[in-house]
Amino acid sequence: MKERKFIPYGRHSIDDDDINEVIKVLKSDWITTGPKIKEFEDELCAYIGTKYCVAVNSGTSALDIAVQSLDLPKGCEVITTPFTFVATSNAIIYNDLKPVFADICSDTFNIDPADIKKKITKNTKVIIYVDYAGQPCSIKEIKEIADDFDLYLIEDACHAIGAEYGQKKVGNFADMTIFSFHPVKHITTGEGGAVVTDNKECYEKLSLLRTHGIDKNTMERFGPDASWAYDMKYLGRNYRITDFQAALGISQLKKLEGFIQKRNNLVSIYADYLGKIDFVRLPIVKSKVRHAWHLYTILLDSSVNRDKFFKYMRTENIGVNVHYIPVYRHSYYINQFNMNPKDFPNTEDVFEKIITLPLYPKMNDKDILYICNKINNFTG
Ligand SMILES: *Cc1c(COP(=O)(O)O)cnc(C)c1O
What we know:
Blueprint: H1 16-26, H2 35-48, E1 52-56, H3 59-69, E2 77-80, H4 87-94, E3 98-101, H5 113-119, E4 124-130, H6 139-149, E5 152-156, E6 164-165, E7 168-169, E8 176-180, E9 193-197, H7 200-210, H8 243-253, H9 256-274, E10 280-281, E11 289-290, E12 296-300, H10 306-315, H11 331-336, H12 345-353, E13 354-357, H13 365-376
Parallel strand pairs: 2-3, 2-4, 4-5, 5-8
Antiparallel strand pairs: 1-9, 6-7, 6-11, 8-9, 10-12, 12-13
Helix pairs in contact: 1-8, 2-8, 3-4, 3-7, 9-13
The structure holds pyridoxal-5'-phosphate (PLP).
């Protein structure tokens, strides 16, 4: 029998029409700092329903300039979740601020508003919340805390483009919301990210921070009537995305609703099969949210050895994964902050039992059936 190809936990869906859009830009005059970037930003704004967008070269860069734009004194505290990709809290450290973790909820694995409240001190200035796996956090409760304590809100929605809370899309709640266009995410530009906001001043600052803090972009300095003068106002970076990536993003964005639909269909097939296996706990979806399903994670009963299960599935060519190793467990964080895992009982409990199953739009029903059959046959 022919061996089955390895099924990764996530991957991009790029078709010929995406590729053609990239080629058109590569043959044009502007391959970076050109018109496609604004077009991509405008399309993102139109999709999400926000006023402003700054597209950059990664989700990590987007987080970095979002935090930088707040211009907070060194050492201020930023509360975030430890159950995320390290980039979320690294952005706090890049800016000489102090990450403070709040524990997660045991049902959604999103940051727990009650624990946020406990972690607030007079030095707390920001909350960065992550919509884990694509499910929006308890945004109403988080916003109430931010209002009561006068804190900025940054939403790391790298998992959650297209997700909704109430009837509104993620991107309309925090002061700034971050997206990533890495290939495992919903839509891709190879590498890429964006910050969306409704605040004009914030938008203008982010635009400069993306490009060295310089107040005139390349197009404004181009051609016979332009002046040589420009001013560097902030210590910005070069976090620019290219025009051919933006063209890919525009083309991908047109397919986003279809991708989310397909992810939803695959998730319901998973639920049908896995619901019958007694050592598997399915993900819980809250009412009044639209889950974007970046990740499909299950919890294994404590009778199951997760690491054995992981090895077994990998041997069957199924790219299971663990999202996430709690951030405070990484050696850099241990060396710098030495936080006590016992302070995060829900995070620790979930971390021990969780496993990510493959989910991406190019999978089909047969792939899901294959994976579920293998899970069902696991004997420990
Ligand atoms: C992917 C991801 C990021 C970083 O995005 P990049 O585009 O890979 O830099 C940040 N936060 C979360 C939660 C992510 O999943």
